[in-house]
Design brief:
Elements lengths: L8 H55 L2 E6 L2 E5 L9 E2 L3 E7 L4 E7 L7 E2 L5 H11 L2 E8 L1 E8 L9 E10 L2 E10 L6
Antiparallel strand pairs: 1-2, 2-4, 3-6, 4-5, 5-7, 8-9, 9-10
Length: 191
C-alpha cells in the first residue's frame, strides 16, 4: 500500500501566511501609489494657483502709476490719476492685503456709492485705507485662498519713487508649500 501524500498542518500554515504577506505588500503598494497620485495632484494645483495669482498681482503692479505703501502682507497701489487732479483719490487706489489668519489674499477698492476722497502723497495710506475698510467704503474681493504670507519689497526706501517691486507670496495647501517669487517693474515709473 502506498502512503498518500497530503499537506500537513504546518505546510498549510506556511502557505497561508506567505499568501497573506504577499497580499499585504500588494495592498501597501497600491495605497502608496494612490497617495503619491493625490500629492502630485495637490502640488500641481498649488503651483497652478501660485502662477495665476502671481500673474494677477504682477499685472496690477505693472499697470500702477505708483506704489503708495509696501509692507509684509500689504501692498497699496495708485492705479492712475484718472481725473487728472494730481492727487491720489480713493477711487484710484487698490489695496492688496494678506490675512494671515484666514490665509486669503484680498484686493480692496472703493465701493459704488461711497464718497471719493483725495489724499496728499504724504498720507499714511495703510492707516487711511484700513479706516475706509472698517467704515465699509472699500470692498474686498477675494483673490486667493491658501495664502500664508506675502512680502512686497520696493527697490527704493520711498515706495512712491520705486520702479521695481520684488514679490514673494507663500501658498499652503495641507502639507505642501509653494513660494511664488518675481520682480515686477512699473511701466509708469512712479511719481
Amino acid at each position: 500500500m502506498h502512503a498518500r501524500r497530503g499537506l500537513t498542518l504546518l505546510e498549510l500554515l506556511i502557505a497561508v501566511s506567505s499568501t497573506a504577506v504577499i497580499a499585504l505588500a500588494g495592498a501597501a503598494m497600491l495605497s502608496a501609489l494612490g497617495y503619491a497620485a493625490s500629492e502630485q495632484r495637490d502640488l500641481r494645483a498649488v503651483v497652478g494657483k501660485s502662477l495665476a495669482v502671481g500673474a494677477r498681482v504682477g499685472a496690477e503692479i505693472r499697470e500702477a502709476h505708483a506704489i503708495l505703501a509696501a509692507e509684509n502682507n500689504l501692498l497699496i497701489l495708485w492705479q492712475g490719476d484718472w481725473n487728472d487732479d494730481q492727487q491720489v483719490d480713493l477711487s484710484e487706489i487698490i489695496r492688496l492685503d494678506v490675512d494671515a489668519v484666514d490665509q486669503t489674499l484680498k484686493a480692496y477698492t472703493i465701493g459704488t456709492g461711497s464718497n471719493d476722497v483725495a489724499y496728499a502723497l504724504t498720507a499714511d495710506f495703510a492707516a487711511e485705507t484700513q479706516a475706509r475698510i472698517d467704515a465699509g467704503d472699500m470692498a474686498g474681493l477675494n483673490w486667493s485662498r491658501d495664502v500664508a504670507a506675502a512680502v512686497f519689497t520696493p527697490n527704493n526706501a520711498n515706495p512712491q519713487q520705486a520702479r521695481l517691486v520684488t514679490v514673494w507670496i507663500t501658498f499652503n495647501a495641507g502639507s505642501l508649500n509653494e513660494v511664488y517669487a518675481s520682480a515686477v517693474a512699473l511701466r509708469d515709473g512712479g511719481v
